[in-house]
Amino acid sequence: MNFNKITLAALMALLLAACSDENKSLGSMGGAEEETAYVLNGRIGDVIPMMLRAKESGAVSGQALIALEGSIVVVFELDSVTLAKTGRSFTDSLKNKDGRFSFEDVSLQSPYVLIENQRSFDSLSCPTCRQRADWDSVYATENNVIYMEVARAIVDLRKIKEISVNSLTNKKVPLWLKYVAEGMDAATASDKAESEILESYGVYESLGAFEEGGDENSDLPFLQEMVGDLQPYSAFKVHMDLHEFYKSLLFISPKLIAKRGGAVERLYRNAEKMNNYRVGYYAKEHGFGRCAEAREGEMQSIEDYYGAPITIVCRSGKWTLGFKKMDYTKGTMTDPRDGTVYKTVTYDANGVSQTWMAENLNFADTSLIADSALKANLPGHSLCKVYDPWCKLYGRYYSWIGAMGIGEKDFRVYAVEPNGDTLFLEQQCYDAQIKECPSEDMVCANEQYRIQQHCDTLYTWSRKIPGDYDSVMDCVEEKMLKCDDHDDECLKSVKETCQSMYGGRYLPGPDWSYGYVEYMADKNKDDYQGVCPDGWRIPTADDWKKLLQIMGDAYGVDSLESGVVLYDDEATGFGMEKVVEEIFVEEETGWMSISSSWWIQFIVADAPIYSLTFYGKNAGMPLNMLGVGVGPETTFFTPVDNFYSAFVRCIKK
Questions:
Q1: Whole-angstrom Cα distance, residue 290 to residue 201?
Q2: pLDDT of 443-462, one tens digit each?
Q3: Which end of the chain, C or N, has fewer beta carbons within 10 A?
């Protein structure tokens, strides 16, 4: 929230009413026995950590405590035992928007002071102020409404050198005074007040003194952000930021963030930490209690902004997004063909043992290998995609025949017509489908167009029959007379009806099949090496189903609904990652635009299945979030085209 206008006259009026006649300015302060001189340096306002945020969710901020230039700062001396005001005070005003204040050589008999910053906002510059109910005072002028609040902090000047007056100190002051009034000494009361506030946000360890402003590595700014975000009219923002984090940032490649540079990586780490504090808060609100050592691996569910369930887990003393850790063994292997080292993971459960690469394969250089089939058939049938030009983040995409080491002429493409005749696709037409021309090569493009015209009726895709535009318009004009002027549904129905009667349409093309089944008839798909290194092979659909059965048994869900746990490397060791297709980060503000997807495909050795696909099925992040599909792409899928490529996860023979 951005407040710009300050009613300084109103501030001064309240200040004079609040201060007794005994209050003295800094210049008129007298001396006393056993007085100690202190220098008070500090800042008014919350320190909000910079982090990656979606601009849509960050556009409405919470009620962070912000510094107001020109507002009044008052320092009250407190009794060192009772923390009651002694009657001595000193005043100054904030000279800048940074909220910095400084009192030089203040002589005090007690090391305890109460610092107050009186602040006002008016309804013209702050239209949402009326939604808050916790103002210290509210009064009306002729054309405006003035909202007053006082930011407070009690400080032990012996311990705190750089003072911070913030949302947390504001909450601490009344509790601190309460516990001192009940008989606690000031230090014990301070610790108890902080502990109570932290626990109300699901934090169970000390984060340091709330008034301490000199620790750059402190996590207190994350709690200050929480306090502001959880105001009644902005609490939705905590939900929204949690939703944006798991939708955009969770389970993406750490290497992608690292390659953007140290500044972006720090923003990401801050967003990750902020997310953990939000999860901890919601765990507290749901009554899950503290994540103690005895509860390690316990899973619970909270809701995102849209009410969809999100799975959280007790991990290393904190509640976090993710799943419990199952039994697995991690290792590594080296591909002797190019020296690439891959992580591996082994599962032994219910009599089934599998060892998988825990990374997607990235092999393309066939120049030094002895496998003649792979050397001849892999080139041109793999690629890297956006934001990963060397396939270092996600591994390499392979067409099915590229991963299998099958030549383009090792099979035939055919269609069976309704009368039972088999129609084989002519080689030149097949070549026309798979051949790509450089954008600047017009000779190639013209030749390609000529071949496509010749082979038009043989293509997998359908042929378009042009419509009669005049007939469509005549039809619309005639039928729309029956519709009321503002009946949009009727007008829409008329247009659709006329378009279906006279508009363009597609004739169905032949249903082409690929002769891979015949090619694979004498091959052992359960021991098919393909592009994998020696000792490893292309997995089958059954291999994946066995893996998912292991996951389903470990997490108590149906095997075909257990795929989401493979994204949590800590939980399963499998290391599946969401592919980022687009990323934009504005470093100065932390605004981000990241397009990532739960949808991911893997090559399988089965013919004619070709690939296995994970896709988003249920909202949120429940255990049954993902669905699994096996089979070729519908409509235009061809195992030859790199456009329909997929990752390879090799499995050990």
A1: 11
A2: 777 766 666 665 655 544 44
A3: C
Structure confidence at residue 425 (pLDDT): 66
Cβ atoms of 29 and 105 within 8 Å: the answer is no
Residue for token digits 């204040």? Answer: 101
The β-bridge partners of 113 are 77, 155
Lateral strand order in the sheet of 145-156: 85-93, 72-78, 112-122, 145-156, 137-140
Mean pLDDT, the chain, integer: 83
Of residues 630 and 545, which shows the higher confidence score?
Answer: 545
Please list, in sequence order, all residues whose beta carbon lies within 8 angstroms of the beta carbon of residue 154, skipping any fewer than 6 positions away: 78, 83, 112, 113, 114, 115, 169, 172, 173, 176, 177, 190, 211
What 8-state DSSP symbol labels residue 642? G
Distance CA 302, CA 79 (A): 46
Burial class, 67, CB count within 10 angstroms (exposed 0-12 / middle 13-18 / buried 19+): buried
For 464-488, letters b (16+ CB in 10 Å) and e give eeebeeeebeebbeebbeeeeeeee
Q: What is the CA radius of gyration of the chain?
A: 34
User: Cβ distance 510 to 456 under 8 Å?
Assistant: no
Amino acid 571: pLDDT: 98
Q: What integer is the mean pLDDT of 283-312?
A: 94
21 to each of 301, 495, 517, how far by Cα in Å? 57, 82, 98
Who's near 424: CB < 8 A, 6+ residues apart?
412, 413, 414
| Average pLDDT estimate for 151-178 | 96
DSSP string, 325-344: ----EEEEEE-TTT--EEEE
Residue appearing with tokens 């007790």: 314
pLDDT the model gives residue 510: 56
Tokens of residue 310, six digits: 């999100």
Token representation of residue 198: 């932290």
Give the per-residue pLDDT at 519. Answer: 83
Domains in the chain: boundaries: 8-192, 236-321, 329-408+515-652, 422-511
Question: What is d(CA 492, CA 74) in angstroms, rounded to the nearest whole number?
Answer: 68
pLDDT beyond 90 at 292: yes
Distance CA 84, CA 112 (A): 10
Q: Which residues, in sequence order, are bridge partners of residue 382?
A: 398
CB 129 within 8 A of CB 138: no
Tokens at residue 207, please? 């984060």
For the chain, helix, strand, coil in percent to 5 are 30, 25, 45
pLDDT (average), residues 550-568 = 94
Amino acid identity at 434: I
Q: Is the model's pLDDT at 623 over the cut of 60?
A: yes
Least confident of 2-16, 130-144, 223-237, 500-514: 2-16
Spatial separation of the C-alpha atoms in residues 92 and 397, rounded to whole Å: 65
| Candidate from 163-177, 290-304, 343-357, 613-627 with smallest mean pLDDT | 613-627
Task: Reduce the secondary structure of 535-567 to three states and give it as a string.
Answer: CEECCCHHHHHHHHHHHHHHHCCCHHHCHHHHH
Do 44 and 67 touch, CB atoms closer than 8 A? yes
Q: Closest Cα to residue 395, out of 616, 649, 574?
A: 649
**Over pLDDT 90: what percentage of the chain?**
45
Residue that is written with structure tokens 């932290």 in the block = 198
- Amino acid identity of residue 11, one-letter, is L
The tokens for 548 are 């998912």
Please give the biggest Cα pair distance in the chain: 113
